[in-house]
Specification:
- The structure is a single chain.
- This protein is an alpha+beta fold and 71 residues long.
- 14% of the residues lie in helices and 32% in strands.
- It has one helix spanning 26-35; strands at 20-22, 39-46, 52-57, 63-68.
- It has a 4-stranded mixed sheet with strand order 1-4-3-2, covered by helices on one side.
Length: 71
């Protein structure tokens, strides 16, 4: 996964829609996000045998999510 942040945009006043991106590995994605300057908001959360998900804030303040199927 390659991340590139756009830093010159104003922060949104409302939370708006929370977009989740499907990834192969939530843990590896969170590590990459952290290394690239993102902040983990909600760490990996498993839903039993179902999906695993997490949310993060990019350097511009936007909150996004990642999830993997089958936990």
């Amino acid at each position: 996964m390659v991340l590139e942040w756009v830093l010159d945009r104003q922060l949104s006043g409302d939370a708006g829609v929370l977009v989740y991106i499907r990834v192969d590995d939530v843990d590896a994605s969170l590590e990459t996000i952290s290394e690239a300057g993102g902040e983990i908001v909600l760490p990996r959360t498993d839903e039993g045998e179902g999906p695993a998900y997490a949310t993060f804030r990019d350097p511009a303040g936007n909150v996004l999510g990642v999830f993997q199927e089958g936990g």
